[in-house]
Amino acid sequence: MSKQTIYYTLTDEAPALATASLLPIFGAFAKEADIELKLTDISLAGRILSAFSDLLPSDQKVEDGLKFLGELTADPKANIVKLPNISASLPQLNAAIKELQSQGFDIPAYPENAQSDAEKDAQARYSKILGSAVNPVLRQGNSDRRAPAAVKGFARKNPHSMGKWSKTSTSHADYMRDGDFFSSEQSVTMDSDQTVSIEFVGKDGSVEVKKSLPLIAGEVLDSMNISCKKLRAFFEESLQDAKENNIMWSLHVKATMMKVSHPIVFGHAVTVFYKDVFEKYGELFNDIGVNPNNGLGSVYDKIKTLPEAQQAEIKQAIEACYETRPELAMVDSDKGITNLHVPSDVIVDASMPAMIRNSGKMWGRDGKAHDAKAVMPESTYARIYQETINFCKTNGAFDPVTMGTVPNVGLMAQKAEEYGSHDKTFEMQADGVMRIVDAKGNVLMQHNVEKGDIWRACQTKDAPIRDWVKLGVTRARQSDTPAVFWLDEERAHDNELRKKVETYLKEHDINGLDIRIMSYNEAIRFSMERIIRGQDTISVTGNVLRDYLTDLFPIMELGTSAKMLSIVPMLQGGGMYETGAGGSAPKHVQQLMEENHLRWDSLGEFLAVAVSFEELGIKHNNEKAIVLAKCLDKATGKLLDTNKSPSRKTGEIDNRGSHFYLAMYWAQELAAQTENAELATQFASLAKELTAKEAAIIAELTEVQGKPAGLSGYYNINLEEVTKIMRPSNTFNQVLASL
Amino acid sequence: MSKQTIYYTLTDEAPALATASLLPIFGAFAKEADIELKLTDISLAGRILSAFSDLLPSDQKVEDGLKFLGELTADPKANIVKLPNISASLPQLNAAIKELQSQGFDIPAYPENAQSDAEKDAQARYSKILGSAVNPVLRQGNSDRRAPAAVKGFARKNPHSMGKWSKTSTSHADYMRDGDFFSSEQSVTMDSDQTVSIEFVGKDGSVEVKKSLPLIAGEVLDSMNISCKKLRAFFEESLQDAKENNIMWSLHVKATMMKVSHPIVFGHAVTVFYKDVFEKYGELFNDIGVNPNNGLGSVYDKIKTLPEAQQAEIKQAIEACYETRPELAMVDSDKGITNLHVPSDVIVDASMPAMIRNSGKMWGRDGKAHDAKAVMPESTYARIYQETINFCKTNGAFDPVTMGTVPNVGLMAQKAEEYGSHDKTFEMQADGVMRIVDAKGNVLMQHNVEKGDIWRACQTKDAPIRDWVKLGVTRARQSDTPAVFWLDEERAHDNELRKKVETYLKEHDINGLDIRIMSYNEAIRFSMERIIRGQDTISVTGNVLRDYLTDLFPIMELGTSAKMLSIVPMLQGGGMYETGAGGSAPKHVQQLMEENHLRWDSLGEFLAVAVSFEELGIKHNNEKAIVLAKCLDKATGKLLDTNKSPSRKTGEIDNRGSHFYLAMYWAQELAAQTENAELATQFASLAKELTAKEAAIIAELTEVQGKPAGLSGYYNINLEEVTKIMRPSNTFNQVLASL
């Protein structure tokens, strides 16, 4: 690894296209401070090709960029700028394979049902590419997320819309009071390295080892259980309560992240809501492969094989349920898609902030917004949403103009589980006892379980906790802001963590800092009371609250969580700088192909690269890098203030135009600054040239728009071809080359 | 003053009647421990007669019992049992005068419009008797209120009804966010004894001294203002919000205690609600003497002088208002009496707990309970009700069976004003500045005011604050319970108090105690989170919160605040033991007169006398007194458990019967105890006799019921006559006399 290198990732779709325009600008500026930006391919196509590289001819072989970066995370000087990439679903993977095959790469298809050795080999290779495969490799540290000053300032001056809150709103969070993970959680801290055994003991005394789990000293191990009976009773009560009180019923789960337990929870909601249907057609559904955990959509899908008349009968039975049940919140009222259609449509961390921003309302069958009972069966985190709803009823909607900010320091390193733990989550097949037994045969924890219960264990290592405490203290010091550790007295897991936090806090100078430990309700209330008074509060949380709060607060503060600065200070000392979410990237690519207009906003890249420069400057004692960073931040602020972000409309400034303005403002700032005279001289001419040629460059960037841009690959882009498309201004290219 | 005397007050109505039966029992038992119980007359009639004693013939002269007890409060060994008395309204005063005159007392009528010197003299004498005239004289200490163990235990075993709370309730508290006392409060602590000047400075620079105020060093002085414009705008907005959201509108003020400011606030509510009527008939109303501060009742009352047609027109105009306004909460839906009829009908500290106990509902025009917007313009204390409402929506109604208790230590001594301060409350007659100027001419505080604003100052002396801190610590120690000082960071007054609390806490050993200082919202939330988990928390509060919380929590815990033990540990070392509220006493007297059944429950007296004995025992080192106290508490518990409290139904056990059972259980406990053998011997025979003759005595007490009891005086009772009525069991009287 070169001494002063920033690794910039080549990912997929819009961010990858934008990179073709933006990286040359970053590179040109960085060169003046003796910094090199290297592009590393972690795109879906790149990952596929590298996985089969040994089977491809030498001119088609591709390096494994992800493996390279993964190893780099152990380097204390690692500096990685990570753009959003595709977490491939199966359809996406198949599309990418097809594209690569059509481009002449001789790679196998994905074998849905692998039989031969070759197929099994292919399946194994593809399984490492599917889903969220990049973050676990690169996120070798805890999480530091905040709203950058420029973004916060822009939001204050240009507040997004916020739905008003009525004091008479009937919306609320509904959750289990008993029988859930929260109320059954047990937790222990291991005193030595050892392998524990997760066991099921049947009513007949038989012991089944479900899993052997190697643990290290200091590791926190939790176990907990959701009672199936109590869960179903809760759903029934909640539905009846909603019906009686004439309020819309809306289920919010996290079936993506909790991919074992939450689909089961979701399935119970479906079978309780449509109880009459499932009672009548249960066996039939079983025969034709209906899986309620996949939602009502699965019913509609699978009954297509049945005779028309029977289909009609079932559909009628489904419709009849709506007579006795409360109205369901809709995902797409035009298409009649409800909250219970697909488990992954309504994801709590995104859906609850949207509901809160929308006056506490969800969308109804009539296409209008209505008060809703937001049902989140597990009470662990659901309570913070009820607290927030009560707060909004009392104090009105948050005001982006005046509100403070709640940055987050999240315990994420080494897969801090809290949520997740799929390999240790089990749906009980019989009544009995689930227990965890240590190496000496002592029972560490146990739960009485019944058939259908959802039992899970999860583990959190000590080193990341220690690092997390340090990061919390560092952030409190750097931003001179109170920091609150969100640790709930009523959670066994949190009480184990609390002991560690109290111990590790002693390792730091916290003199003059305001560091507190609070329960979730106290912490969110404290943060909200401060936020409406314009005050900031750092939330130092576990992994789930990291996920939830870095949506909740940013969506209130900034209207989106995509504009957050997301840093992973790695355990080994390096840093990864993540840029915003890429949710809408496919639409962006489509617009580029059809009209040669890329609406992708590279704001996240601007912000991440500034921090990347800054940290590199500090580590290498490179003063110029620090000045580059400061001026880049100022340029970003100016770009926001002057509204030079990409327009959605073809013919107006797009991604490329915004890059030009960033370069111009950045050069102007560098030329004008007095901190580093050499750098000012270096950029004087560039600033002058870009300023003088603004009109010409913008004209060149605009005139290419309106006709299709020829892209020969969607997943496996041709960088040369894309560079031609993304850098169409000769004037701009020449001026930049003159640096 | 005798060395071992308890002063027992003769008051009014039912408590006075009950005294004729109960005091002989207390006296007989006390005698055995060398304690004398002396009866001191502080009844309304007694106070009138003593005020005119110099004008009455010698055989009609009456001692001034209140003055005597007032002086006694300075005695470190003062021991006073204070029963509920009449805080006379003008109609009550007039009725008492009339009764006394008819009994041959030559006292003057109350001169509504005093002209002659004699009339002026009479008015001056009566003014000291009107209203709340007793408590300010006797309450020479702070307040210690708690639910006695026997009462709390009884409530847990026999829970009162509690309305369920719906998660979809739309009820809420509504209050000003700006322009009220809370947001304008200023506060200073005096550094020396001096007289300050409250001044109004007009727009023309003229200075009017409204009041000279002598203050002592360490005294806290506050000033604050309600903006009339903002108050009226708030009412209008609140009404429109209620109308739009179809929720009942309910005004909750404290016109009795805040007798200057709150009637004005109430008046604005009336003139805003009936805006169209007051705009049209304002001048006419002025002419005929309508005072909106007296409520809509005043309109109906005064227009009676107008021609029928005009009356009808006005009534129609009033009815028309209901078309454009939200539904009003009713005080008496049968009679069509709304919340705006009379200012003293709905008193926040009683009405809000009732609403919260009743599922957050108030009574509507249809005689049914509905969700309501509870309007309390001043936000200072209103916020705790919103917090409570949110809490109930989230957690459901409180459960008397499992809930903990919240005793109170209240800052009350030396008229700690906070509320009150009638002589320093002004309705502004013009725009200008209200300021307080110290002896050197420095402006301590000032407010810009507008015509119609309500400005007030209020004072709190240092010695009571110091004593209050001590009492808080003592109670925390004695009951081993966390104590929370409710001091709001956002209130200027509370910040002055906070400094003193922090200083005075250092005077005490608080090692091992859990003593906290919290804002109101934090404190009530903390207390509620604990209470639903069965945990107790002492609230250490100012004078208003004392008043509010000793209704709110007791009504949730016990169903009534009348069963609370209320102690005033006096600044000079003595103690006053107050017994429960006498709100429904007039109805009780009526039932006695008609059916010779007194349903008054002397539970408060049982509890107060037990503490009175206990404290006397400690002070005089009288062991027997302490044992008497313990056994009395046990007897009270047994009486509750065996359901020997008075029935409301004639023919069943009434007040007298419950006194018998108290005596029997008390004697049994004394005979059975082993702590003091002498006392056991002394009471052995009594216990035996009472137990043996239970049936006979109850029969004698029951057979007198069902026919009218002849009472020759309502206000000025004839104690001999009343004693005959109240002690009708010869058997019981003889057994008691044999002691």
Automatic annotation (TrEMBL), chains A, B:
The record's free-text note on cofactor binding: Binds 1 Mg(2+) or Mn(2+) ion per subunit.
Any single Pfam family the record assigns to this protein: IDH
Name of the protein: Isocitrate dehydrogenase [NADP]
Origin organism lineage: Bacteria, Pseudomonadati, Pseudomonadota, Gammaproteobacteria, Oceanospirillales
BP term (GO), one: glyoxylate cycle
Names of required cofactors: Mg(2+); Mn(2+)
Family that this chain belongs to: Belongs to the monomeric-type IDH family.
Recorded GO MF terms: isocitrate dehydrogenase (NADP+) activity; metal ion binding
Tagged with keyword Translocase: no
Catalytic activity entry: D-threo-isocitrate + NADP(+) = 2-oxoglutarate + CO2 + NADPH
E.C. number: 1.1.1.42
NCBIfam families: monomer_idh
Record-listed NADP(+) binding positions: 82-87, 135, 583-584, 588, 599-601, 648
Record bears the keyword NADP: yes
InterPro entries documented for this protein: Isocitrate_DH_NADP_mono
Residues binding D-threo-isocitrate, per UniProt: 145, 546
Domain of life: Bacteria
Signal peptide as annotated in the record: none
Keywords: Glyoxylate bypass, Magnesium, Metal-binding, NADP, Oxidoreductase, Tricarboxylic acid cycle
Binding locations of substrate: 132-139
SUPFAM superfamilies noted in UniProt: Isocitrate/Isopropylmalate dehydrogenase-like
Annotated site, Critical for catalysis, chain positions: 254, 419
Residues at which Mg(2+) binds: 349, 547, 551
